[in-house]
């Protein structure tokens, strides 16, 4: 199975990869514009980052709603660390990294909001060290969508305690 956010329909499509067809659709109640998605195998849940300041946790086998988490604005990824059983949602507008403890199928909660930098919204985890790498840049807002300042690209590194 593969799980895919369908951003314009606010749902997760479940795909049978052998049959090459959609076998289920999991609605994401209260979620608008799901972008990031991660599967936490230890708990059997999917974690979606939504464009309306919400993180949704869904049972991967049934599509049942497990939790709704308040997160920052403009997330674009969910990064999962199966070694530490933690999920991370970087939120670009506030410049925060939401840290989610995934203890079990119904025991999922935000345990920390780490200040990062405005604009950081995607990333990766090093499973050996637990470090999170967040690419970003400096942004300027004139009218409408912020634009990057040339020559300011950088990688933020968030290390565990």
**What is the approximate shape?**
globular
Radius of gyration (Å): 16 Å
Low-confidence stretches: none
Count of individual helical segments: 0
The share of residues in extended strands comes to over 45%
In sequence order, what are the helices and strands, one letter per element?
A: EEEEEEEEEEEEEEEE
Head-to-tail CA distance between termini: 35 Å
The major β-sheet equals:
4 strands, antiparallel
Strand order of the largest sheet: 4-5-6-7
Mean pLDDT, to the nearest integer, reads 95
Number of strands: 16
Helix content: under 10%
Secondary-structure-derived class: mainly beta
Overall description:
There is one protein chain. By secondary structure, the chain is mainly beta. Helices cover 0% and strands 53% of the residues. It contains no helices and 16 strands. It has strands at residues 2-6, 11-16, 21-27, 34-40, 45-50, 54-59, 65-70, 79-81, 86-91, 96-104, 107-115, 124-125, 132-136, 139-140, 147-148, 154-158. The strands form five sheets. The protein has a four-stranded antiparallel sheet with strand order 4-5-6-7, with no helix packed on it. Strands 8-9-10-11 form a four-stranded antiparallel sheet, with no helix packed on it. It has a three-stranded antiparallel sheet with strand order 1-2-3, with no helix packed on it.
